[in-house]
Design brief:
Residues 126-361 form the Peptidase C45 hydrolase domain. The protein has helices at 23-33, 35-52, 57-75, 77-90, 96-103, 105-109, 197-207, 211-221, 284-301, 308-315, and strands spanning 7-11, 14-21, 118-124, 129-137, 145-152, 159-164, 172-174, 178-184, 227-233, 238-244, 247-251, 254-256, 259-264, 340-348, 353-358, 368-371. The chain is α+β, with helices and mostly antiparallel strands and 372 residues long. The longest helix is centred in the N-terminal third of the chain and has 19 residues, at 57-75.
């Protein structure tokens, strides 16, 4: 059933849209409540595709519809109905094809470009499990962000994530205590017969009750392009998997007294991946990963375990600025080189709670609280 009042403002700059019901109803609520943001994102990605993939919106849409829509329709027809609902709700002449194009933005652009996210998953000495991530992207996207709280009719789970209006999945968690973070990986590896990244991530949030469930879903549907997923569940499992059309490759946890953790930025480094799977990361990916590992181990040496406060402090680090963990726009940068931290998500999977901030965490920001 479509809510008459689906929008709240948990953060003064970003809408929270509450969706429930059938796939189409969820999409229609999403699209109608965030119509301005959906249209903004289409305009933004039209420019973004031109700069990164050298294609117009019409060309990107043709690629999305011919290469990826048949796979999505075959693997998960209900999510296509949700996208159809988003288009109808947003109005303004948008069609299903436009929304599909938004949802395969990784497959269109991120084989040539990568954003700058930094993530960490950590298990405390008492068994509590946390995930945390800074999401870095161009500043225009801040006008197209949305919090989505979704209760699908065909699932017992409720899911919550911070994302891009018009796109069906992003980093977040569900009521079963499963959560995930995402790190873009710039790789030319592409297989349109597998599920696009953002659709697959939504599938995980909607149906996975554990990390093992999530890995089984990834194995079943495959990934059309490359993405790193840091995943955890309330049962205590946490890990990192570099996922690509060539397979899934696990990164071993760093294990020490009072902490088990894994961190990731935007480059492949899992052992055992094939030599043919290549990426083209920015140099700062390596320095951000090294710095997150250093900060995590310094905390451990001081007896500071993972918490909302300690993780926010790490994600607020500005060493090597502007391309720091808490990223700033470089002076004189233009176009897609103007990466900045847009949001910070910290999830306590054991407790079923999360804290999200919009903007750079090194600034004084209001905190959005989620609880299941």
């Amino acid at each position: 059933m479509i809510s008459k009042s689906p929008v709240t403002m948990d953060d003064p700059r970003v809408k929270t849209v509450h969706c429930s019901g059938s796939a189409y109803e969820i999409g229609f609520t999403h699209g109608s409540a965030a119509a301005t943001e959906v249209h903004h994102n289409i305009g933004m990605y039209s420019d973004f595709f031109g700069e990164t993939a050298k294609v117009t919106w019409a060309q990107a849409r043709e690629r999305a519809v011919t290469k990826f829509l048949p796979t999505i329709q075959r693997q998960w027809p209900e999510i296509v109905e949700e996208m159809r609902g988003i288009a109808a709700g947003a109005g303004g002449g948008l069609t299903l094809d436009d929304i599909v194009t938004l949802n395969v933005r990784t497959e269109i652009a991120f084989t040539n470009y990568t954003d700058g996210c930094t993530s960490v998953g950590q298990k405390a000495a008492d068994g509590r499990v946390f995930l945390a991530q800074n999401w870095d992207m161009i500043p225009e996207l801040s006008q197209g962000m949305v919090f989505l709280h979704i209760a699908p009719a065909d699932s017992d789970l409720v899911l919550r994530f911070i994302g891009e209006a018009g796109i069906v999945g992003k980093m977040g968690m569900n009521s079963a205590g499963f959560g995930l973070c995402m790190n873009a990986l710039r790789s030319a590896s592409l297989n349109p017969s597998h599920m696009p990244v953002h659709v697959l991530v939504r599938r995980l949030l909607q149906y996975a009750t554990s990390v093992d469930d999530a890995l089984a879903i990834i194995d079943k549907y495959g990934l059309a392009s490359s993405i790193n997923l840091v995943m955890a569940d309330k049962g205590g499992k946490v890990g990192d998997w570099e996922c690509s059309p060539a397979g899934i490759f696990s990164i071993p946890l760093q294990v020490g007294p009072g902490y088990d953790y894994v961190a990731h930025a935007n480059h492949f480094y899992a052992p055992g991946r094939p030599a043919t799977l290549k990426d083209h990361p920015a140099r700062d990916s390596f320095s951000r990963l090294a710095r997150m590992e250093e900060l995590t181990e310094l905390d451990a040496q001081k007896g500071v375990g993972p918490s909302f406060e300690s993780l926010r402090a790490r994600l607020s680090d500005q060493k090597n600025t502007p391309p720091a963990i808490c990223r700033a726009i470089p002076p004189g940068a233009t176009g897609t080189d103007r990466l900045v931290t847009l949001s910070t998500s910290i999830m306590d999977l054991t407790g079923g709670t999360a804290q999200v901030t919009i903007g750079r965490p090194c600034d004084d920001l209001p905190i959005v609280h989620w609880s299941f």
